[in-house]
Amino acid sequence: MAKLILTPENQIQRLNTIFNSVEQLRDLPLVQLKKRFNPKTWSVLEVILHLNIAYGHYHTKFEEIIPNLSSIDVEQKKFKCRAWQKFVIEGQRPKNNVRKWKMKTLKRFEPIIDLEHVDDKKANEIIDSFFALYGHLKETIVTSRGKNVTKIKFASAIGPIVNFYLPESFEFLICHLERHTVQISEILKQVEK
């Protein structure tokens, strides 16, 4: 099995690409952001709201963990992902801009919003919240470069069946973002028809 080597630089670069994609959503008409292409699917705004909800668990964990990590003299450059964590991460990662399989979302991560009552202001608040939350992820990745990230593991948002070191959690979150960026592209293609 091939190794998965994680670097902060690669993670930040991919986050910046995602930020650019989400920023472009602001230029779309509100009706496009709210539209579902069938009743069982999410709209673009619901996907963004889901991403915001999903990051909540990690935001709290990062705030608890980062101050307790010891500093290191040389910035960490690479981190080798463990086998089980790699499997979980790769399950999120889209391949060639295609989601390998669709997953059922846990109830606690489902976006609950009345799309009929969403106006431009509310849509911008959801997108602004995305940038605040995932800007925090970017800052955390940058801060972690000068910390010993091999000392503390924590349970993922899906539960203690998956425990992450910080770089593994960053990768999981970025792959989750990439997965939903593909989903947003799929939704936009459908609603434009």
Description:
- This protein is mainly alpha-helical and 193 residues long.
- The protein has a single domain (5-192), classed as Up-down Bundle (Four Helix Bundle (Hemerythrin (Met), subunit A)), CATH 1.20.120.
- The protein has six helices and four strands.
- The chain has helices spanning 8-25, 30-34, 44-65, 83-92, 120-144, 166-192; strands spanning 5-6, 79-80, 154-156, 159-164.
- The chain has a two-stranded antiparallel ribbon. A two-stranded antiparallel sheet has the order 3-4.
- A hairpin with a 2-residue loop joins strand 3 (154-156) and strand 4.
- Helix 3 packs parallel to helix 5 and helix 4 packs parallel to helix 6 (166-192).
